């Protein structure tokens, strides 16, 4: 059996997205670069001062944001549904961090992070009631 090791985002600006998602998810923080990551960057001929991969760690799987330039599909085939207790407040807070609202529905809001990756804010109470039914 396998287990999720990490969730990887291909992106243009790893630092921006890492900070955004660390702020969005409870208990997550950007991992500080260590000597191993700097050595790997040097070995690949990259500038260690501008890491191409940034990790975000928390209580669940780690998130990996890696620099991959070029076009990606407009709609994600996989996205996060994130339970929140005050959806309107989270929408406002995340909008100030660079997210955009795509669609608002009665129990959830479809949003995009600063690089256009889709995610959904779900009312925690509505989700709990749905599961209990």
From TrEMBL:
InterPro entries according to UniProt: Glyas_Bleomycin-R_OHBP_Dase (IPR029068), Glyoxalase_6 (IPR041581)
Which SUPFAM superfamilies does this entry report, sorted A to Z? Glyoxalase/Bleomycin resistance protein/Dihydroxybiphenyl dioxygenase
What the entry lists under Gene3D superfamilies is as follows: 2,3-Dihydroxybiphenyl 1,2-Dioxygenase, domain 1
Q: Which residues form the Glyoxalase-like domain?
A: 6-122
Q: Which PANTHER family match?
A: CONSERVED PROTEIN, HYPOTHETICAL FUSION PROTEIN
**Could you tell me what this protein is called?**
Glyoxalase-like domain-containing protein
